[in-house]
Amino acid sequence: MSRPCFKRPFLKHPLLLALAYAGLASAHADGAGNALDAAGASAEAEQTQSTRPAPPAGAVMPVVTVTAAAVDAYSARSSKSASRLDLTLRETPQSVSVVTRALMDDFQLTTINDVLASTTGVTVEKVETSRTYFTARGFDIVNFQYDGVGLPQVFGNLQGDIDTALYERIDIVRGANGLMTSTGNPSATVNFIRKRPSAQTAASASVTLGSWNTRRVEGDVTAKLNESGSVTGRAVLVHQDGESYLDRYEPKRNVAYAVVDARLGDATVLTMGHTYEAGRSKGVMWGALPLYYTDGTPTDYPRSTNTAADWSRWDTTNHSTFAELSHNLGQGWRVLATANYLTEKSDSTLQYVYGTPDRTTGLGLLAYPSKYASDHTQSLVDMSVDGKFALGGREHDLSFGYNWSKSRLVDQSLYGRGIGDSLPGNTAFDGSFPLPPFDAAIDGSRYEDRRNTVFAAARFNLTDDWKLLAGVNHTRARGNGLAYGVSRAKSATKTTPYVGVVYDINRSLSAYASHTQIFNPQTETDASGATLDPIEGKTTEAGLKSALFDGRLNLSGAVFKTRQDNTAETAGLVGGKTIYRGINAESQGVELEASGELARGWQATAGVTSLSIHGDQGEKAKPYIPRTTLRVNTTYALPGLPALKVGGSLRWQSKSSVDQGGGITTRQSSYAVLGLMARYQFDRHLSLAVNLNNVTDKKYLTSLYWTQSYYAAPRNGSATLTWTY
């Protein structure tokens, strides 16, 4: 019996030529010619200025022009998410996607699942209603960061939802990210950039009504907290609840965020904040639907089918507290110290349905009730120094620092009476299985992981056209404890390099190449009882990047090769104990992306990824990952009616499959999901937006990551009324 467990060729592409042509054609082109998010951008500019020493009395102040990103922009001018250095996307020798506040608002991307499903090169594997895996370049994404600081996900997946209302933008760095992350996979790093306060008073409130009685209320306010404006604050509140297209499933969440900035002097800023997120979901799936009958033919249930019992629930409560101290040392140097403390609590009572149904009799499905609780804490401290230095008659950039983190997990599984009971007829799907006592057995985990990292990165301006980015990350990772009777002891130390080069072909087009590594210690043991060596990941990529229209439009094209060696795979039993072996896999492919303003009033993000994934012997691996994906999001403000904005989104992916064993394979054909939106701005304060999802009512499975799955939502919509000040 298998059940989901809580513990647990470089391609030539003609579009690259199009990218190069676009950059060359723009070499002599002139840049072409937008409120709470603008207030956030202003706050960032104010914070930067506040750390500068005051001018001497009587000094003549130069004119300073601060240019903030347009409030409806779909691209960003710079990012620190790949290197800790504040570089433009064109200067960064790695693939970076930026999901802006405007994009999230236009298409109602209210959870991280929504965001990543709309991001180039990322697949969202929603295996259950409350658990999701993410992949990029053929490997699992396990690194989530907040303002550049974070740890790998303890389970390798996301439990519950992360609401996006708290974030100004979300950066996704694809490939290994050894400079920014101590350990992990060579897939991608997701960096959440928190909203910050402004001294300029601004506020917004919105109400959303959607299909299946979904209701969402959201508020956001920022203002100065003292007369001088040296102390500013911001607060965000969210409440969402409703029903679902799935029988008996009722998700609900509450979110609160508060942050305060205090200028302690001309050169010092202290920021403190706290986030509270609570999910309370009823009728939650543990596992999903069987995908084939005993005769090998595929099942085809109604989209509303749910295996959860009436009493099933999954509650999550997360707290995150952070403090950040920034001090300007002068001469372009700054020191930044950040401390984070996170707690994640989970409490659930669930019903897992397993087995293979008989098409004729309906027999073959069995019950597996369980009660589960976990308490996960993370403590993180990050200190860095960055600035500029002169060498060889040129100015260069440098960042270095230290990172310490500790993660602790305690969880417990209580198994209910009735495990293995038959579920005849429709009883597997009607929620009628009675709530049992959970005293059949007990198991659990108690373990701790620790990381210590020192890092350094420098960008050398070799010539006017050549830039070299080089860095190193030295990490010591240790762990101890037990997880369901298996040791979690591990110890590994490794130094991972980063090197990238950028060549400016002209003022709009650059070529780049980079190589970066990452590692991840393991606890699994081989036949001899020795712990497997750490997983090692490597990414090599090269490509072209272009910044057009004064940086409002970013284009990129890349070819990449990503390899992950020594990943633990079950190799059998020795003395009743599972043993493992290390396997290798490699992906290679091409990515093309455009983001920003294509013309006045026309914003878009569009990206296509095509890849292959092979194992040790050249065999195709991970067939559940679609080999080609397309993501498009675009909006247009009508010239004759500027108050009206219309847009659409498209997600397309190629076929995928999963081997069920016994010669049975579940296949999902390629499919496309279309979304539409429209927003009308009645005046400077009030707007109404309408979003329609899955317009063609496509029926498809959410994932083939596991050997079970369920169906995605049918056609649905929402209307959002927003007031701003």
From TrEMBL:
Subcellular location: Cell outer membrane
Membrane topology, as annotated: Multi-pass membrane protein
Keyword set includes Protein transport: no
Tree of life domain: Bacteria
Annotated TonB-dependent receptor-like beta-barrel domain residues: 292-695
Residues annotated as domain TonB-dependent receptor plug: 89-187
Protein name as catalogued: TonB-dependent siderophore receptor
Organism annotation: Duganella zoogloeoides
